[in-house]
Amino acid sequence: MELQTFVPIDRPDFQIDYGTRMMFLGSCFVENIGERLDYFRFSVDVNPCGIVYNPLSVADTLEMLLEGQPLGVPDLWRHNGLWGSFRHHGRFSAPDAGECLRKINTRLEESASHLRQADLLVITWGTAWVYTRRAGGQVVSNCHKFPASDFLRRRLTVEEIVETYASLLERVRERCPHIRVLLTVSPIRHWKDGAHGNQLSKAVLLLAAERLTERFAFVSYFPSYEIVMDELRDYRFYADDLLHISSQGILYIWERFRDHYITEEARALMKQVDKWKKILLHRPSEPDSEATLRLRAQASEELLRLVRYPAWVSVSGLPE
Fold first, then answer.
1. Chain segment 184-213, per-residue pLDDT in tens
2. Per-residue pLDDT tens for 15-73?
């Protein structure tokens, strides 16, 4: 008896190992997968502008990385005592304009360098609905709690998305002739659009992704949305808000991603990395004892022996 419908995944023309440099852009789904890759010490850069949900804002992030031009004070807003950017998440905001720009431009510079050497670009779209500033007509990544009257809300068309990405992906490919692009649609529901509105939005994204995979041989699709809808069709795989995916659901999608794209050799190495990472993350009862310090030093040395990141990458809690 088969009690579950499994979503087939197209055979990839690439695989991920510890030599693969990756860039992840888009909704919180890429953050979930990217964080796990970072945990296992893969070379991955995730959302240099923060979480981005709509395709035009993801494209704008990619444009900034390709252009490599720093932002200036005219690119910022000032509101409620903070400086920030409509192209960035609130984590980049600061009470001082200089500090805000430092955080933004440092991150963009690092990520632009990473993209130039990237082997894989993963893009996840969350919604086809966008907010456009009435003053200037700019599509924003984040409204930053500005009055709703400051924006116009509309749904993108399939043609808009395809036209934007057709030229953009060609430019990416020119810069990085060997790069592969993996598109996916976030399974997280945007309930503010309503049940029907959310489905229409996802349909636009799915059709746009299909057109791009048909157009470009180096672009493929990972069915994260379909896996949740068909394989995990149960509310136990959702968080308490019934909109986001639970930790168990995220783990399931991660395992499908891992088993399909990551090489067997890399998966074997991941087990060793996991062993030593758990030692470093563990909070012992006697953190300053000689035995604990010796074990933690051994764990750090083993991780550096197993996997060495490029020089610019910083992993929290681990020596460079």
1. 999 888 888 788 988 999 999 999 999 999
2. 999 999 999 999 888 888 999 999 999 999 999 999 999 999 999 999 999 998 899 99
Spatial distance between the Cα atoms of 249 and 238, rounded to a whole number of angstroms: 7
Q: Which two tokens stand for residue 163?
A: 């036209």
Evaluate whether 259 touches 36 at the Cβ level (below 8 Å): no
Phi, psi for residue 44 in degrees, rounded to 5: -135, 140
d(CA 104, CA 91): 10
How large is the C-alpha radius of gyration of the chain? 21
Tokens for 83?
């400086």
What CA–CA distance (Å, rounded) separates 167 from 175?
13
User: What is the rounded distance in angstroms from the CA atom of residue 142 to the CA atom of residue 87?
Assistant: 7
Amino acid at 75: D
DSSP classification of residue 199: H
Task: Output the six-digit token pair for 166.
Answer: 């057709």
Q: Find all residues with CB under 8 Å of 133, minimum gap 6, and list them.
A: 86, 140, 150, 151
- pTM (2 decimals)? 0.88
Give the long-range contacts of residues 291-296, CB within 8 A, separation 24 or more: none
All residue ranges of the chain with pLDDT < 70 are 1, 3, 235, 242, 284-286, 288, 308-320
Which are the contacts of 320, defined by CB distance < 8 A and separation ≥ 6?
309, 311, 314
18, 270 Cβ separation under 8 angstroms: no
Q: In whole angstroms, what is the distance from residue 76 CA to residue 84 CA?
A: 5
